């Protein structure tokens, strides 16, 4: 679309908006007729560690959404000379899982407990045994059961339980619904009914029956919707929450709210059987769409869903680039101290590319990037570490390389189960997220880690905001005539430009040797958790 066509498209109210609340930024993407981004807005935010809980204040959710939307509106006006007032459709996505519990009058009963928390070990283990189905610590049902085990008084007063995307959508539309991908991180989904597992709901109700709570579990949960189903419309109240100018018109149809896993699958065209993708940023997750059940219940793997209801195995890691980002911020401070004018993009690009000059052994350096706990490796808390021996080759290239490798170590642990133990056939893995923004670097390292070809699209950095915009567009321009898979293949990605990197044998072997050192180094991490309070 040229500028005149785009301006007309926006003026007629035919553009589609996607908003995603990620771990470190809230991002809005507006897409045009060809479904490419035509305007963007963003707002940086951070979680807080308060009284032992990783959380965000709900007031900061709305502050961030408003500022992000203002930034988008400004971008539209500067590029096209029009004010954004009408939309064809919109959707909201956010970090999956976690615990948002509300009372009878819609009041928040306890601070938002995000996916990053690892406080539900007992609950997750007991539910996994009961259901014979892996229940990760960050899932909503694990948080609910842990609150019950802890005797938290608010449990009796819960009337609605949801995720961050479900909460924002509820406030914007009045509808207590959730896309099936995000719902799968609350309570296990039955792939046949494409709804919460009735068997497991009953098992849970029986488990807690002696507590005498005035609710059944399903009564607390949002209704499950599939991609292509309308999930309500933006209300006048919702407009006031989002657009402080009040210019945006109410009545905009909204797609089901989704988690970042579902929007990641959409943004990488990874919703068909045996397709795989890796999202790597603050956290990381690798996903493969299944056509057969796994042979075993693995604690390292979540079983979730595509936005249209296909089962997915997901290796989720709480920690990916957070510690690496902190180190790069130190380099940014140094550059500023020395009076150097270096942009964030240039700094990341140069430092990432420098890592390619590192030794195969990363100079015998060791790092652990656990800002928070990591369930896959059995750490309930995190202590970011960098360790070297007196004779280690301590230079910038090896320093960057070991931190990039470490960012992928937990992900590899889970993905190896799918690719090597379960031998699920995947032609290639499609990478997206901030880890892949610097050309070839993250892609090459992931190929070495997984011993699998890795593809990256030109849209690799667009992420979930673009993915939820595509799901909103599917609602109004595709769902009545084709499946989500057909829509993505035939209308969105038909001309997509991809680059592929194949694993090199020496680099694969080097990464395996790194993993041996990494696993040994976790003993140091354990000691740090135990003794560095």
The share of residues in extended strands comes to 15-25%
Q: What general outline do the C-alpha atoms trace?
A: globular
The count of DSSP E runs of length 2 or more, i.e. the number of strands, is 22
Going by helix content, strand content and strand pairing, the class is: alpha/beta
Q: Taking all residues together, what is the mean pLDDT?
A: 94
Radius of gyration, taken over Cα atoms and rounded to an integer in Å? 23 Å
Amount of helix: 25-40%
The helix tally amounts to 17
What's the CATH class of the domain at 97-162 and 187-220, please?
A: Alpha Beta
Describe the largest sheet.
7 strands, mixed
CATH 2nd-level architecture of the domain at 97-162 and 187-220: 2-Layer Sandwich
Report the CATH superfamily of the domain at 97-162 and 187-220: ATPase, nucleotide binding domain
End-to-end CA span: 56 Å
**CATH fold annotation of the domain at 97-162 and 187-220:** Nucleotidyltransferase, domain 5
Give a quick summary of the entry.
The chain has helices at 3-11, 58-80, 121-131, 140-149, 164-173, 180-183, 198-207, 217-220, 236-242, 260-267, 322-337, 344-355, 396-421, 441-450, 463-477, 484-492, 505-531; strands spanning 16-21, 25-31, 37-44, 48-50, 53-55, 89-94, 100-102, 160-162, 177-179, 189-190, 195-196, 223-225, 258-259, 276-280, 284-289, 302-305, 311-317, 366-368, 385-387, 429-432, 454-457, 498-501.
């Amino acid at each position: 679309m040229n500028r005149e066509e785009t301006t007309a498209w926006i003026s007629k109210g035919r553009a589609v908006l996607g908003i995603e609340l990620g771990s470190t930024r809230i991002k809005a993407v507006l897409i045009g007729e060809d479904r490419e981004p035509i305007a963007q807005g963003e707002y940086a935010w951070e979680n807080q560690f308060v009284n032992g809980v990783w959380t965000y204040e709900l007031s900061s959710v709305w502050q961030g959404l408003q500022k992000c939307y203002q930034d988008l509106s400004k971008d539209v006006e500067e590029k096209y000379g029009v004010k954004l007032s009408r939309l064809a459709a919109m959707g909201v996505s956010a970090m999956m899982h976690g615990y948002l519990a509300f009372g009878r009058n819609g009041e928040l009963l306890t601070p938002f407990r995000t996916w990053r928390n690892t406080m539900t070990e007992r609950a997750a283990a007991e539910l996994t045994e009961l259901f014979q189905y892996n229940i990760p610590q960050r899932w909503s049902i694990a948080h609910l059961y842990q609150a019950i085990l802890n005797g938290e008084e608010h449990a009796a007063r819960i009337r609605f339980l949801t995720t961050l995307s479900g909460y924002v959508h509820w406030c914007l539309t009045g509808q207590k619904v959730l896309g099936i991908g995000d719902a799968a991180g609350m309570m296990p989904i039955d792939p046949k009914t494409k709804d919460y597992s009735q068997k497991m709901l009953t098992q849970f109700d029986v488990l807690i029956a002696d507590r005498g709570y005035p609710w059944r579990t399903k009564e607390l949960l949002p209704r499950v919707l599939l991609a292509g189903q309308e999930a309500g419309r933006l209300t006048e109240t919702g407009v006031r929450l989002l657009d402080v100018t009040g210019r945006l018109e109410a009545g905009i149809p909204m797609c089901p709210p989704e988690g970042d896993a579902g929007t990641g699958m959409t943004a990488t065209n990874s919703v068909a059987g045996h397709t795989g993708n890796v999202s790597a940023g603050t956290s990381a997750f690798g996903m493969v769409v299944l056509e057969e059940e796994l042979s075993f219940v693995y604690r390292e793997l979540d079983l979730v869903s595509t936005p249209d209801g296909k089962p997915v195995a997901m290796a989720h890691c709480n920690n990916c680039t957070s510690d690496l980002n902190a180190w790069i911020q130190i380099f940014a401070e140094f550059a500023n101290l020395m009076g150097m004018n270096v942009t964030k993009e240039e700094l990341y690009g140069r430092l990432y590319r420098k890592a390619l000059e590192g030794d195969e052994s990363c100079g015998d350096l060791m790092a652990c990037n656990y800002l928070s706990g990591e369930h896959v490796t059995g750490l309930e808390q995190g202590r970011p570490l960098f360790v070297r021996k007196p004779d280690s080759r301590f230079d910038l290239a090896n320093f960057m390389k070991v931190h990039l490798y470490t960012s992928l170590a937990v992900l590899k642990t889970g993905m190896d189960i799918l690719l090597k133990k379960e031998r699920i056939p995947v032609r290639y893995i499609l990478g997206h997220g901030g880890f892949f923004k610097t050309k070839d670097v993250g892609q090459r390292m992931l190929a070495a880690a997984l011993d699998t070809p890795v593809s990256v699209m030109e849209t690799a950095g667009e992420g979930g905001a673009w993915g939820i915009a595509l799901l909103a567009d599917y609602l109004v321009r595709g769902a009545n005539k084709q499946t989500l898979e057909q829509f993505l293949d035939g209308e969105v990605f038909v001309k997509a430009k991809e680059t592929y990197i194949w694993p090199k044998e020496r680099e694969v072997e080097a990464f395996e040797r790194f993993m041996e050192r990494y696993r040994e180094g976790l003993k140091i991490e354990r000691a740090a958790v135990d003794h560095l309070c």
